[in-house]
Design a protein that fits this description.
The protein is mainly α. The chain has a single domain, classed as Protein of unknown function DUF3243 (Cytochrome Bc1 Complex, Chain D, domain 2), CATH 1.10.760.20. 77% of the residues lie in helices and 0% in strands. InterPro entries: DUF3243, Uncharacterised_YmfJ, YmfJ/YflH_sf. This is DUF3243 domain-containing protein.
Length: 81
């Protein structure tokens, strides 16, 4: 089972990775850039496994680059602990 199969598992996984990056002193700008790159990769290469991922994928597909970066930043806010 992948962390992408369950929305709560995905949020927990992403939140743990983000917390780890913050603890290591990774700047917010670098975290947001990586979040954008992950979002773009997932949209291009991974079939959504649940309703929440489908909504994000659909939003990503109609958003321009600035809006995609905003979506990625919102995801980071969503998983912050």
């Amino acid at each position: 089972m992948s962390v992408l199969d369950n929305w709560q598992d995905w949020k927990r996984f992403l939140g743990n990775k983000m917390d780890n990056a913050v603890q290591r002193g990774v700047p917010d700008e670098a975290i947001n850039k990586l979040a954008y790159e992950i979002g773009d990769y997932l949209h291009s290469n991974v079939d959504p496994k649940n309703e929440q991922e489908r909504v994000l994928s659909d939003l990503w597909s109609v958003a321009d680059e600035n809006e995609q970066k905003a979506l990625a930043k919102c995801m980071m806010k969503l998983v912050q602990k």
